[in-house]
Amino acid sequence: MANSAQARKRARQAVKQNAHNSSLRSELRTAIKRVIKAIEAGDKTAAQSVYRDSVSTVDSIADKKIIHKNKASRHKSRLSAAIKAMA
């Protein structure tokens, strides 16, 4: 347990920040799952429109350093390749 006032405050801030970051990570996973679901449905135009929306979400979360920028690029690249591979 934190003993000093400063340490107690930092512990409170850490809890609040952890909750915020967790919600953003959840938003990221949901955006990626939406694209995957659209790809599995087989509708290329729908998948492309969902992908465009997801890219902005992924980029904003990477800009906030919730995930690394290379991880964001990897997700975008793989989703884009999956859409391009659709018949």
Automatic annotation (TrEMBL):
Keywords for this entry?
Ribonucleoprotein, Ribosomal protein, RNA-binding, rRNA-binding
Q: Where is this region: Disordered?
A: 1-26
Q: Which GO terms describe its biological process?
A: translation
InterPro entries, sorted: Ribosomal_bS20, Ribosomal_bS20_sf
Q: Note the PANTHER family from the entry.
A: 30S RIBOSOMAL PROTEIN S20, SMALL RIBOSOMAL SUBUNIT PROTEIN BS20C
What HAMAP family does the database record attribute to this sequence?
Answer: Ribosomal_bS20 (MF_00500)
Q: Which protein family is it in?
A: Belongs to the bacterial ribosomal protein bS20 family.
Q: What does this protein do?
A: Binds directly to 16S ribosomal RNA.
Q: Under which name does UniProt file this protein?
A: Small ribosomal subunit protein bS20
